[in-house]
């Protein structure tokens, strides 16, 4: 029967594949509240669980909260959150209150989820058009997505835009950078593995591997590559 694939081993709870969340500072998200609240930036942090720096906010009601830091923010800056908030960097507003063309990040997928889109360093999105029932946003992938007008977003561009400009230069640095987030690296293709490790592995000849289309009745563990087609060959008219 072979053995479990690496993809099947990840997520089982073993120490090799468990996220080091005890080293993370916490969740960076929008604060759920009603009305308008002011906040002060009291600290900037580098969290291994985020590619962008985090900002520690102290709100007027003494609540401490982490947000993804925007580009240009400093300790001591004042920002706002809620209805009627100013368009300062890092302020949190509903999409219906943000004008067209504004640069935003950390966009909620559903109202109240804290933010799911555009959170990586250097990224930003732009509001394209506004309609009564939806707001169209241009994402960093150049795709457009419609959001609920009640979803919140932060103003500005995510800090840390130059992170990818510095080369790793050698594999050792890349290994430890991925290890900090407990990512499996390097990624080896199935055709380069041994037959015992992957269904596509085996043979040391020049032409390695097997077809990437799994059989229709393949068992779990063999169901890798392309899903089996209903038919093969060119469709006849």
Give a verbal description of the structure.
The model has no long low-confidence stretch (mean pLDDT 87). The chain is mainly β and 237 residues long. Strand 2 and strand 3 (64-68) form a beta hairpin. It is built from two helices and ten strands; from the N terminus they run αββββββββββα. It has a six-stranded antiparallel beta sheet with strand order 5-10-6-7-8-9, with no helix packed on it. The protein has a four-stranded antiparallel beta sheet with strand order 3-2-1-4, with no helix packed on it. The longest helix is centred in the C-terminal third of the chain and has 10 residues, at 171-180. It has a domain at 25-163: SH3 type barrels (Roll), CATH 2.30.30.
Summarize the structure.
This protein has 237 residues and is mainly beta.
């Amino acid at each position: 029967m072979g053995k479990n694939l690496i993809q099947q081993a990840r997520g089982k709870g073993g120490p090799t594949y468990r996220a080091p969340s005890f080293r993370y500072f916490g969740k960076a998200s929008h604060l759920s509240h009603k009305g308008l609240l002011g906040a002060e930036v009291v600290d900037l942090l580098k969290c291994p669980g985020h590619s962008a720096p985090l900002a520690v906010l102290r709100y007027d009601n003494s609540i401490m909260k982490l947000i993804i830091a925007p580009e240009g923010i400093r300790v001591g800056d004042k920002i706002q959150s809620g209805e009627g908030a100013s368009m300062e960097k890092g302020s949190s507003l509903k999409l219906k209150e943000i004008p067209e063309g504004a640069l935003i990040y950390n966009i909620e997928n559903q109202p109240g989820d804290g933010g799911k889109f555009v959170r990586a360093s250097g990224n930003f999105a732009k509001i394209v058009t506004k309609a009564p029932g939806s707001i169209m946003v241009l994402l960093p992938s150049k795709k457009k997505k419609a959001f609920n007008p009640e979803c919140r977003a932060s103003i500005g561009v995510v800090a840390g835009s130059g992170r990818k400009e510095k080369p790793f230069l050698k594999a050792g640095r890349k290994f430890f950078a991925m290890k900090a987030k407990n990512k499996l690296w390097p990624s080896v293709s199935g055709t380069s593995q041994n037959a015992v490790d992957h269904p596509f592995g085996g043979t040391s000849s020049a032409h390695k591997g097997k077809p990437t289309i799994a059989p229709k009745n393949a068992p779990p563990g063999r169901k890798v590559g392309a899903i089996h087609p209903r038919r093969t060959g060119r469709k006849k008219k």
